[in-house]
Amino acid sequence: MGVWLPAIFLAGLLFSFLPAFHHPTPHHIKVAVAAPPATTAQLQHQLDTAIPGGFTLQPVDSAAEARAAVLNNDAVAAFAPAAHHPQLYGAKADGAAMESIIRQVFTSGAQEPGTTVGFHELVPTRQGDTLGTSPFYLLMACTLPAYFLVVTMQRAVGFSRRAHVATMAGGGAVTALACYLTGAYGMDAIPQHPLALLYLFLLTQSVSLTSYGLVSFLGPFFPGASVTLFIMLSVPASGLTVPVDLLAGFFRFLHPVLPMGNAADALRNVDYFDDQQLGRPTAVLCAWIAFGAALIVLGYLKRLRQLVYEARAGITEYVPAPPAEDPTVEPPEPVALPPRRHHFGEQPPMLAGRVSGPVGEPLPGVTITVTDPHGRQLLHTRTDQNGEYAATGFNDGFAVVVASALGRQPVATRLLLDTATPLNQDFILTPRRGDVPGYMSSHRATTIAP
Q1: Most exposed: 55, 143, 255, 389, by fewest CB within 10 Å?
Q2: Handedness of CA 249, 250, 255, 261 (dihedral sign)
Q3: 335-440 belongs to which CATH class?
Q4: Whole-prediction pTM value?
Q5: What are the sequence ranges of the domains in the chain?
Q6: Which segments of 159-221 does DSSP mark as H helices, in order?
Q7: Which residues of 350-360 are buried (b: 16+ CB within 10 A; e: fewer)?
């Protein structure tokens, strides 16, 4: 149980980041060619011989139309194979690495001997974002806080689902605004356009609502699912570190599906291509938000069904499940556990036991209080209908456990808690008749006078 999350990071870095970023190769890069179809077909054959499947050439009528295809984001580059002065037109906004490969291929393999290909930059990146990678860090700055906010919300005792969702929406708005003001006005890395702020906010909600919705179904495993979806797969498929058309097929497939890639496309289209082709990024981001909202509603219905089942089964003392926490950021914290409900993926109890009467009858509703040796309360819970209790999350060391109930003599014992050795401690409570001493079933117990 202690190694599954590090294993996910190891697998993600080895089998996601490394294959995606190693040896980028062109895959069907669209290039508009101002030449007759026969000339374009001949050039296509030359390129396929050099890089099979690397480029898809689209014949157009004129160089002006070829340039327009680049400016409208219908093609990554344009080529006008004139007899003596062939011209190549690029868009660095589509990725500096892609533009470099296109220039290298067309200046070495697509020109006639004795000619020199002239290059013209049609869509340069912002002056404050020379390499075109600043949006990646802004999108990461929206993704990671949105995820960690879900983790910390698991510790928000007394918050309802509605309060959780409202907090995540407010936190997402603050995060998106901070990223927008820093990126647009502080560093000139993204456009000073309200749509840029909108897409940053949509990204935060896609991550936070989906992650929060997964908690009800995956419990302590939700960090693994969220990290896999929104970090390990989204970062390579975003197209911000390596352009999409240079990625392997699996990541090119993920790019239009995952939130980060769509947010990246939206920011680029708003910044460099006059708000064109925003339909798909908007629809996908909203779909992720709707998916997260659906998971939250289904989780709420699942919880209601569980409560109805427990009520019918006669479970009157409900012990809430421990919070689903991220072991990378959450230290252990004492929590009560439902006795006899410890499945794979759930926290095992460090302390458990049964409270009964003098003749062995179970005592439900008995208060179990755990304090440190200085009297500071660590945990407060009650026994279930079988008189059982369970708890975990304690630090190694001595603790005092007190069992008390109305009309019965309270009993206390001093125990040495150890995370590596689960401890079972039973109690016997006798009816209170003046100062009748309490009893315990464990020979290690030490009665402490109330």
Answers
A1: 255
A2: negative
A3: mainly beta
A4: 0.75
A5: 18-121, 129-299, 335-440
A6: 161-180, 194-218
A7: bbbbbbbeeee
